[in-house]
Amino acid sequence: MNSKIMIFFQFMYKYFQTSFFFWIYLCRGLFIYSLVPALCTLFLVLKDINAGVDDEKNVTVKQLFKKYYTQHKNSRLMSFIYMLIFILIYTSLYFINKESNEGYLILIIVFIYILFMTLLMLIYSTVFIAFKEMDKKNGNFLAFLSIFKNPVASVALIVILILLNMSINFNFAFFLAFGPFLFGLGVIFSLYKLINESGSFVA
After folding, report:
1. Rounded distance, CA 69 to CA 64, Å?
2. Which long-range contacts does 150-156 make (Cβ < 8 Å, 24+ apart)?
3. What distances in angstroms separate CA 85 from CA 95, 129, 144, 169, one per listed residue?
4. Could you tell me the CA-to-CA distances from 15 to 70, 77, 104, 186 in Å, in that order?
5. pLDDT of residue 118 exceeding 60
6. Rounded to 5 degrees, what angle do the CA atoms 203, 74, 28 make?
7. Residues 160/183, Cβ–Cβ less than 8 Å
8. pTM of the predicted protein model
């Protein structure tokens, strides 16, 4: 019993480290240039921790983060494009929400739909780039197709995103500590079949 408790706390410690280094590397690129590399790294590090690779190879979470981030730091342009899209969407929603006209409700729904589609595109594409070692063009193309070909997984990811957004308002400190690794684990679990299947990358 004591050994299981120790293992649990060891995993939690590594998960908290993962969240910490995720924010560090995200801030290094001012979010704009580091979003995609940091997400790819987050997923890969969590997968290694869950598989016990860090213990097997005697490497730390910090070393894993540095290794994987270096491998994916050439995705800065892709990060910039996604961040630009997010900024445009949030700016549009901000000004639309200031209008009291009910006719703008349709526009709000459209922009929220575009927002979720963009978030799903980002998640799927980073998963393909990280785990399937795809180039950015094919990763994004298959990401778009996968959103519709994996409806259950896509809905699960949307629920995860909504819960994370709620956690920001509920307790920001909780979000900072738990958000990244819970999000990463949620993505890995939701897209488990897609990540581990061989051959065709689109279910």
Report:
1. 8
2. 150/191, 150/194, 150/203, 153/190, 153/191, 153/193, 153/194, 154/120, 156/186, 156/190
3. 16, 20, 16, 23
4. 20, 28, 42, 13
5. yes
6. 110
7. yes
8. 0.92
Q: What is the DSSP code (8-state) at residue 133?
A: -
Chain centroid to CA 5: 28
Confidence bin at 1 (pLDDT 50/70/90): low
Tokens 């280094």, located at residue: 21
| pLDDT > 90? residue 24 | yes
Q: Report the amino acid identity of residue 98.
A: K
Rounded to an integer, what is the distance from CA 69 to the centroid of its chain? 14
Sign of CA dihedral 66, 31, 170, 191: negative
Q: Which residue has the tokens 């929220």?
A: 112
Report how far apart, in Å, the C-alpha atoms of 43 and of each of 15, 93, 104, 140, 187 are.
12, 30, 38, 17, 8
Residue 11 · residue 61 · CB < 8 Å: no
Q: Is 202 within 8 Å of 172 (Cβ atoms)?
A: no
**Closest residue by Cα to residue 77 from 41, 36, 115, 116:** 36
